[in-house]
Amino acid sequence: MSKPTRAVILANGEMENRAAVKALIHPSDTIIAADGGAQYCQQLGLSPDVLIGDFDSLSSELLAGFEQAGAQIIRHPARKDFTDLELALQYARSLGAIDILVLGALGARWDQSLANLLLAASEQFIDINIKLIDGEQEIFLLREGSTHEVTGEPGDIVSLIPLGDNAQGIRTEGLEYPLQDEPLIFGATRGISNVLLDRTALISLNQGSLLCVIIHNMDHKENRDHSQS
Known about the structure:
Layout: E1 6-10, H1 18-23, E2 30-34, H2 38-44, E3 50-53, H3 60-68, E4 72-75, H4 84-95, E5 99-103, H5 110-118, E6 129-134, E7 137-143, E8 146-151, E9 157-162, E10 167-173, E11 180-184, E12 194-195, E13 200-207, E14 209-215, H6 218-228
Parallel strand pairs: 1-2, 1-5, 2-3, 3-4, 5-6
Antiparallel strand pairs: 6-7, 7-14, 8-13, 9-12, 9-14, 10-11, 10-13
């Protein structure tokens, strides 16, 4: 397998608007199914490059079908120290992926959802960009010393949540409630529900880490698509 620029991981959580999900996947992406996430590959008509996990959430028939179609199967024991998603992230990193898009990582189980969200903050993934998509929400981590351009539509919600400790030296441009070299306190809610003023905004962080959640308002997209038709 050639070295990928981007890997897409399909996990076994909930997945809304599957047509929109499929549109996010590029022909050049390396597709990795984390155990039961392979069911979404089947539903979306995708051929995964790799299936990884203990396969307790996947039928032997579907597994055999993907293997016959050419997918690489990486089997782990049920008693293991990592979730299937973490194993998939580790494997994508070993391939040299710089950007990793994770689909279907959230769902009804809070323990799994919280753990999956926090994987982006793991030191083992410090050199890659991990983005989780859940319906109209996208989630990613800002590490200290970084600047990120947020894109969307005016009115989209942008929330900044400190992880592990206070986040210091935050500056924003293009949000309704600006921060000018200010902190956000771990365990407080000041960074919730800011608003995008234009189609782009800048967020920079001097110290700490921030989980950034963007909630896209589909009414804006539908109105824009209608005006262009």
